[in-house]
Amino acid sequence: MFLNIVFIIFLLFSYPVSASVCEQNKSVDITSDILTCKQKISKLKPHSTASFEAKLELAVLYRQAGDLALANSELEQLLSQSLSISQQYHVTRQLGINAYRQRGYIQSLTYFHKTQKLATQLKNLSYEGQTSNDLANVYQALGDLDTALTLFLNSYDIAKQLNDLKRQAVTLNNLGNISRDINQLDDAIVSFRQAHLLHTQLGNQTKANHTLISLAEVFFKKLQFDKAINLINSTLTQLNNSGAHTQASRAYLLLAEIALAQNKLNEAHKWLATQKRTRSLIQNDKVDQRALLIEAKLKQLEGNDTEAQVLLKQGLAKNHNQNSQLTELFYIALAQSQQQSKQYRDALSTLEDYNTMLRQNRTDTANLYQLRLKQADILPNKPQHNYFTLYNVLAVFSAFMAGMLLSYKYLAQISKPPNTVNNAAPNEATYTEQDTRQLIVEVMTLSLSIWEQTSSKTRIELAEESKMWKVNIDDGRLRVRTLERYLAIKTLPKKPRWRNIIKTAHYVINHCNEEHDDLHKLKQQIQKLEVLAKASPHYLT
């Protein structure tokens, strides 16, 4: 979930840009490295390969210094030059990373999809694997875990082809994170164990220990507390002796969570205090937000709502612009604490803020859906109607985490006349084969989008429950390769399974919220598709 955000960002940016031209001092003062690099550039021939590589490194240094505006300016200047495809790839990728760092996830996807096309043009498998990894991290940040899982698997397959054990280990760790977040816990265990084995073989004990703690988190989610504790204890001595204070801090925090889950409040206090001491050894002035949330939950369980609310508001002040699960947990815990202490007006204000975040999240989902369609090459050039409306959300609550959290969710509806859609059946003679293929992909993409939004279930569960698509096991993981072929024109079979497509769409309509905005649109598309299907010579196949 949010437990590995820092590690994921490190993985996203861990691949080298190119051979170093600017010799970095590796000093704590990055300003010195920037000045050295700029001096080096001034002595290089303009528009030379060495000048390009040095300027690319300078852009990375600006980002490391936190000046993304200067980093982007440097990259845009490079793009204005006549660049080779490989150089375009590197510049565009750095722009994507900068957008990701600024939480501009949709913009980041646009850049990374471009690098994907450039990597394909170059026929460079290493670049393709790198781009799949970049895209997967962004989709994961957006909450589209199924797409992220597919991309990570692609990156893993490429790493296997290249016999790149390091990338295999990194990708397996990412696959474990995704599997854990979608509650495919047995798959997560397999991935983390394989990643640990590879990290150990490569002699990278730091990452091996990181993976063991990730494995302990899975056992925690499975409520197998003893297994989780044993794994953590097996790594703590080595982590402390090696000075791996970040990972040791993470381990102590997990021990505190386990103690909370077992209602051992004194033990939770002990582990939180140890985590704080360990955290103080790290040269980082940022507050550990997850530790803040756990401490607030402990205060709530002790009945000290005033102190809990101070901590929760502190966390929200740092996270209010982030549509993350961590932010949701802060809102939920704060609303619960205010409700318990009968601060109903404050609780309502918190719920309104939460509502605003959820509406923004719905807008992001709409933008992501449109981007998906564009990447499937099915959006026409004419202006698109916006079928997504904002919801006023009605707060409801239920027990969460054995009474530790009050879970608030929102439902709402704005009465609005349905969009005008031509109900007339299409004339199959006017539909080209390409039009039909576009409609198939749009029906499947929209069906999957509605299913994921209204049921909070994955494409694997759609395949299993509808009984329309085969679920395969690939490297110990569940996959729906056949269904996934229907989500893009370039992978769509020449002889599509008409009945499977139509029955899948009907299944979604019958089992999803009837008030969803796009359900009407999907029904209209199915009517058109049914007419076209009956006219197809392959309809009965």
Automatic annotation (TrEMBL):
Localization: Cytoplasm
Signal peptide coordinates: 1-19
UniProt keyword Signal present: yes
Gene3D superfamilies: Tetratricopeptide repeat domain (1.25.40.10)
Keyword Nuclease: no
A family per Pfam: TPR_MalT
Name of protein: MalT-like TPR region domain-containing protein
InterPro entries: Bac_ResReg_Asp_Phosphatase, TPR-like_helical_dom_sf, TPR_MalT, TPR_rpt
Family statement drawn from the similarity comment of this UniProt entry: Belongs to the Rap family.
GO CC, one annotated term: cytoplasm
Record-annotated MalT-like TPR region domain positions: 127-368
UniProt keyword terms in alphabetical order: Cytoplasm, Repeat, Signal, TPR repeat
Residue runs in coiled coils: none
Main location as per UniProt: cytoplasm
